[in-house]
Amino acid sequence: MIASKKLISFFFVFLIFFLLDVSFNFAATDTINKSDFLTPHERGWLKEHPKIVLAGETNFPPFEFLNEHQKYRGFSVDYIRIIERLLGIKFEIQFWDHWDKLMKDGKNRKNDVWPTATPTPYRLEFMDFTKPYIKLDAVILTRKNVDKSMQNLESLTDMKVSVISGFGIHEYIKENYPDVNLDVVPNTSEGLKKVSFGLVDAMVVNIAMATYFMEKEGITNLEIGGKTGYTYDWGLASRNDWPELNSILEKTLNQIDPLKKKEIYRKWVGLKVKEGLTLKQFLSFLFGTLTLFGIGTILFWNRSLKKQVETRTIELNAANSAKSIFLANMSHEIRTPMNAILGYAQILEREPQLEKKYKDSIRNILSSGNHLLNLINEILDLSKIEAGRMELTPTSFDLNALAKDMSAMFELRCEEKQLRWRNEAISNEPIWVYGDETKLRQALINLLGNGVKFTDSGKIIFKLTIQEDEHYLFEAIDSGMGIPKEAQKSIFEPFKQDAEGRNKGGTGLGLAISKKQIDLMGGELKVDSKLGEGSRFYFLIKLPATLTRPNSKETEKYKRVTQIIAEHPINILIVDDVKENRNVLKYFLENLGFTITQSENGLEAIKLAQKHPFDIIFMDIQMPIMNGVEATQALRSDLNLRDIKIIGISASVYDYSPEKIKEMQFDDFLLKPFQVEEIISSIDKLISVKWAYQKVEVEKNETETTSTDYSKVIISLALHSRLENSAKEFNLTDFTSALDELSQSNDSGKKLARQLEKHLKVYDFIKIQSILEEVRTESLSNP
Q1: Structural contact between residues 236 and 113, judged by C-beta atoms closer than 8 angstroms
Q2: Which of 71, 70, 62, 60 is nearest to 97 (CA)?
Q3: Long-range contacts of residues 20-29, Cβ cutoff 8 Å, at least 24 apart
Q4: What is the model's pLDDT at position 401?
Q5: Cα distances (angstroms) measured from residue 31 to each of 35, 47, 256, 628
Q6: CA-CA 20 to 30 A from 357: which of 295, 315, 586, 629?
Q7: What is the DSSP string of 507-551?
Q8: CA dist 584 to 319, 617, 629, Å?
């Protein structure tokens, strides 16, 4: 009895405190409502608009929906109820079950507020938006106790993954991760069930919707495997002819207690699957545990060892993936500032008033910067190979010219080692084909370079013969030591090399990269080799004939452009979230005579395009708020804006094929760092414009090449040693420094510097060494 009285007393004390707390909260709300955060004009506006229609959705859980009792519930609804209390108003709610009808009526001013909305170009025509009150990740859901490597979108390659049709993440994965095998489902419930039953590997879905349906349908065997990097941003929207309302809603959202926001989030969003055991389930579990205990003890160590191996494999795969991602991200981060460095250098190089000695220094900056980019690209070839993302970039090129380049490059190397060089190409006539010249060139340099490296006497042969159906056979033959049979089995694997390879200073990467490049071109790299007789590396690839010819004169022509000639202003919009990148393009284009407007993101760009006519938009791809692809697709969907020419720009390391550029709906694409002539060429392709050109001025003796008698050139012994040593070590920094000193010396030294600089541009240090052998020297003590 005493205990009962104590319990009743405790209950009444608790009730009193609860009522006091509620009273306090309402008192605080009333205080805020009266005067704290709205201006007198805003409070007056609310009195003049007693009827504000809210457009509620009936089937968008967990944000807005009608429950089984037809009550309006959801995450956004909780925010709306708090807003009503803070403002002392009551929205008039009209329900809609069809989004297109809701939007149409909104445009016709039949509703005033939308609780859950994101900006789009169409909606911006009649809506204003608050800042997002919730940002939610799209996550990867997997079954529990399965492969733990599905931690990001990169790791879903070749996996079967459910996505909801028409959702933003669906288009995002299609565009950016084409190797993911998408299983498109009509709704969240169906996708979750497919993952639960093992019909698909994973589902990419909004975390809030996943939570709601997992709890509603009792799905307990799923967990979050990782994040996608894709974020949903939701805020309140209101009709844009009532700007006061948007301001009031924005201010009211700011008044909501952060603790209350967390409470609403936990209520509707937190992934908390309930897993309770009934008595029957518990007894079944206990019986099964006892039965399997003996067997489990026997298998424990075996399973433990297997688990360790699996874990280690996953860790290694994750490490490789992380390394590839790191290299890709680092390259992107390097390319972004390099765009500014090389961009400003090009601007200065085109400055007519700049003294020649400064222009020479600027050319050194450009040469060194471009060399750095080449090194970055070579490192990224490894990253792309490991990530399986190396792609072909085919162009038209002269196959016979490529063969001659190989001959010119390796003939001298063979002479240095006293080897015989033989080039057995098809003919002396041009052979125009369509293929990836860069990757073919890299593969051949690796194969022929290996031949020279591992051959101490005898010969090197490069053969190129035409086969049936536009196929060509490439052969690199040497008379070196040959390769043991056992070593031939692993010779194309990364970092695999025998003792001879290590003695010669190889890294074990050249053949691995060449094989991957040739595989990508549709061929297969093979080797025939016998110890003591040499080796033959060969492959067969198809190179279709083409009538298209690259026009090098056009590139030279664009280098001489000084100004546009136009009867009316040509307006260009530059969209990039990095200020330095915008400024580089701005200086390029303003100096050419274009009228420039700038924007920091895609959403802002759309608003500007709706207000101002633009002839061309330079659109960065990776931007916050709205990226370049989303903004471009939005512009294409607007009948008034769809004809604007849009040039995609990016510092991304991954290749953008013509098909991918077309899919993203760009008219053209430029890779950072920019080259002035590439920008001009792109504009010239897209719009009709006339150009003014700089007159060609040929410097005296600048055209001298093979006729130069280097034996008549005399430079100091110290300078000659610096040039020769840095050339032999392929040390670009030291050689450039010495070359700069040479260009400041006497007339013959300046002439020599110009000739060496030409070979430096193609990094032909072998030719540079041969020239320096002819140059005479004098000591500093001579008069």
Answers
A1: yes
A2: 60
A3: 29/85, 29/86
A4: 84
A5: 7, 18, 14, 45
A6: 586
A7: -S-HHHHHHHHHHHTT---EEEEETTTEEEEEEEEE--B------
A8: 37, 15, 22
How many helices and strands in the chain, by DSSP H and E? 27, 28
Average pLDDT, the chain: 76
Going by the DSSP 8-state scheme, the letter that residue 32 receives in this structure is I
CA nearest neighbour of 150 among 118, 180, 192, 114: 180
β-bridge partners, 134: 234
The full DSSP string for 638-701 is STTTTTSEEEEEE--SS---HHHHHHTT-SEEEESSP-HHHHHHHHHHHS--EEEEPPP-PPTT
Concatenated DSSP letters of 309-347: HHHHHHHHHHHHHHHHHHHHHHHHHHHHHHHHHHHHHHH
623 CB-contact burial (10 Å; exposed 0-12 / middle 13-18 / buried 19+): buried
pTM exceeds cut of 0.85: no
Given a contact cutoff of 8 angstroms between Cβ atoms, the answer to whether 35 and 41 are in contact is no
Query: How distant, in Å, are the alpha carbons of 146, 300, 301 from that of 304?
Result: 16, 6, 5
Amino acid at 198: G
pLDDT digits 0-9 by tens, 315-342: 555 555 555 555 555 555 666 666 667 7
Q: Which two tokens stand for residue 359?
A: 């222009």
The encoded tokens of residue 360 equal 């020479």
> Using CA atoms, how far apart are residues 335 and 78, in angstroms rounded to an integer?
46
**Residue 769 C-beta-side C-alpha neighbours within 13 Å:** 14
- One-letter amino acid at 253 equals L
The DSSP symbol for 417 reads T
14-66 pLDDT, tens digit per residue, is 433 443 344 334 433 333 444 478 888 888 899 999 999 999 888 778 888 88
Residue 187 DSSP class: S
Q: What is the pLDDT of residues 403-447, one digit of tens each?
A: 887 887 788 778 878 889 988 876 667 888 989 888 898 889 889
Residue 582 and residue 575: Cα distance in Å, rounded?
7
- Tokens found for residue 374: 């080449």
Residues 6+ apart with CB under 8 A from 102: 55, 57, 96, 111, 114
Token pair listed for 84: 């009503």
State how beta strands 222-239 and 127-129 pair.
antiparallel
* Alpha-carbon torsion (308, 309, 310, 315), positive or negative: positive
Q: Which residues contact 612 (CB under 8 A, 6 or more apart)?
A: 571, 573, 597
Q: What pairing do the DSSP bridges indicate for beta strands 526-530 and 113-117? A: unpaired
Measured distance CA(212)–CA(64) in Å, rounded: 12
Angle among Cα 344, 348, 351 to the nearest 5 degrees reads: 145
CA distances from 473 to 314, 400, 438, 539, 578 (A): 40, 13, 17, 6, 47
CB 128 within 8 A of CB 237: yes
Task: Return the closest-CA partner of residue 627 out of 608, 603, 606.
Answer: 603
How distant, in Å, are the alpha carbons of 127, 209, 693 from that of 236?
10, 19, 54
Q: What is the Cα–Cα distance from 461 to 444, expressed in whole angstroms?
A: 12
536: pLDDT strictly greater than 90: yes
Tokens representing 607 are 């608003």
- Intra-chain end-to-end CA distance of the chain, in Å: 122
Q: Which value, in Å, is the radius of gyration of the alpha carbons in the chain?
A: 35
Beta bridge pairs of residue 692: 563
